């Protein structure tokens, strides 16, 4: 936002901090409980950050809609309507994520089990902080806006009798701009105008709807085809606990034998008469042909 009052920089910052607190809380709790920490768990914060920021945007968007419909001085009603609209969406996304990762704890791989446990618990904390901590930050930010205070310095913004004698920096932080004139009320956000007046009517046009259906069908077909082409590519070393004997084995194998390429094994799946000399010679000839 260009307005020095309506700028939501601090909301964005505290939305990221909220996700960070969720990571710290979950990691601290599980480490305290003795759950092993493996290298794959280091990827969890990026997942939590993505979901946390998404929840932040949902909360802010619902708050902005509430501001347009209700009395801005009634903070309780504003926050109640915000939660009534945003909480359901945030709850559903969190619930599906938590279920998905907690189901993953049933795997036989200890490292995957630890990753799913850490990530699922972090999603729970992310939900708690979004519903409590971030909601409080929204209210504090709203009170700053109602007090007509600058987004950075929290100084009251307005015309100053002595603005001619003040520096440009003072005017920018305490008045809102370098000119020394009071800030004009902010108009409706351009993004809201675009989706309301242009994108929405375009998407609901009777000629555009069949095109959207066709595009979705093509997307769905491409997704199904892509799923059939997926191949496993995980490093087996990362599936073991840090203190497992498998770790030095893979380290030494990469260090000393990686230049020779992969080992080739031949498995005989049927019953073979190894006592028969002719069969043994046939196996030996097969081995020499492979070599």
UniProtKB/TrEMBL annotation:
Annotated Gene Ontology cellular component terms: membrane
PANTHER family in alphabetical order: PATCHED DOMAIN-CONTAINING PROTEIN 3 (PTHR10796:SF60), PATCHED-RELATED (PTHR10796)
Family, as annotated: Belongs to the patched family.
Compartmental location: Membrane
Keyword Transmembrane assigned: yes
Coiled-coil residue spans: none
Organism: Probosciger aterrimus
Residue ranges of domain SSD in the record: 1-140
Swiss-Prot/TrEMBL keywords: Glycoprotein, Membrane, Transmembrane, Transmembrane helix
InterPro entries: Patched_domain-protein, PTHD_SSD, SSD
Keyword Ligase: no
Protein name: PTHD3 protein
Mode of membrane association: Multi-pass membrane protein
Name of the gene: Ptchd3
Transmembrane stretches, start-end: 9-39, 45-63, 86-109, 115-140
One Pfam assignment: Patched
């Amino acid at each position: 936002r260009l307005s020095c009052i309506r700028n939501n920089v601090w909301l964005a910052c505290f939305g990221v901090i909220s996700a960070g607190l969720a990571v710290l809380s979950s990691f601290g709790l599980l480490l305290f409980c003795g759950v092993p920490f493996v290298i794959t768990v280091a990827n969890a914060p990026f997942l939590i950050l993505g979901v946390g920021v998404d929840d932040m945007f949902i909360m802010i968007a619902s708050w902005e809609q509430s501001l347009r419909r209700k009395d801005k001085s009634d903070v309780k009603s504003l926050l109640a309507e915000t939660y009534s609209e945003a909480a359901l969406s945030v709850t559903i996304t969190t619930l599906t994520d938590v279920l998905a990762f907690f189901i993953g704890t049933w795997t036989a791989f200890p490292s995957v089990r630890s990753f799913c446990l850490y990530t699922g618990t972090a999603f729970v904390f992310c939900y708690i902080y979004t519903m409590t901590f971030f909601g409080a930050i929204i209210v504090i930010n709203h009170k700053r806006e109602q007090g007509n205070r600058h987004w950075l310095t929290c100084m009251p913004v307005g015309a100053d009798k002595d603005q001619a004698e003040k520096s440009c920096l003072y005017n920018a932080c305490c008045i809102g701009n370098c000119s020394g004139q009071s800030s004009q009320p902010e108009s409706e956000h351009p993004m809201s105008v675009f989706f309301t007046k242009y994108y929405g009517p375009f998407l609901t046009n009777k000629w555009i709807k069949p095109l959207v259906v066709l595009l979705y069908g093509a997307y769905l077909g491409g997704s199904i085809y892509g799923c059939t082409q997926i191949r496993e590519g995980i490093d087996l070393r990362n599936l073991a606990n840090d203190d497992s004997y498998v770790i030095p084995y893979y380290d030494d194998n990469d260090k000393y034998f990686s230049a020779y390429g992969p080992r080739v094994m031949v498995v005989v799946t049927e019953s073979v008469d190894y006592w028969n000399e002719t069969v043994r010679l046939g196996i030996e000839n097969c081995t020499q042909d492979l070599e």
